[in-house]
Amino acid sequence: MPDKLTVDLHPIFRSDRDIDDAVRKAIFRAAGGKIPLVEIIPGNGSGKLKNRVLAMLNQPHMKKLYRRVEVAPGNDGMVLVHLK
Fold first, then answer.
1. Where do the Smr domain residues begin and end (predicted)?
2. In whole angstroms, what is the distance from residue 49 CA to residue 3 CA?
């Protein structure tokens, strides 16, 4: 069992639907596979993509799946999702 799952959003940053789909699938896959950590890499940039990811993770049906969300210490371009 892997200790983390990584999702890089750089290749799909232009498609909102693909971004939402990739993040949602990663969280559900990690929750189902008992993987404790999901690393989401929106990159640094202007912050729009990171804000979109954080807003999506803040939805009630997503909040039920994880314990906490944080921006990686020392790396503003990575969001860490700690699952239950």
1. 1-84
2. 25
Per-residue pLDDT of 63-72, as tens digits, reads: 999 999 999 9
**Residues 9/61, Cβ–Cβ less than 8 Å:** no
Q: Which fold has domain 5-83?
A: Ribosomal Protein S8; Chain: A, domain 1 (3.30.1370)
End-to-end Cα, the chain, rounded Å: 16
**Confidence (pLDDT) at 28:** 94
User: 15-35 pLDDT, tens per residue?
Assistant: 889 999 999 999 999 999 999
For residues 40 and 22, what is the distance between their CA atoms, to the nearest angstrom? 10
Please list, in sequence order, all residues whose beta carbon lies within 8 angstroms of the beta carbon of residue 46, skipping any fewer than 6 positions away.
none
Domain ranges of the chain: 5-83
In the β-sheet with 37-41, what is the strand arrangement from edge to edge? 5-8, 37-41, 79-83, 66-71
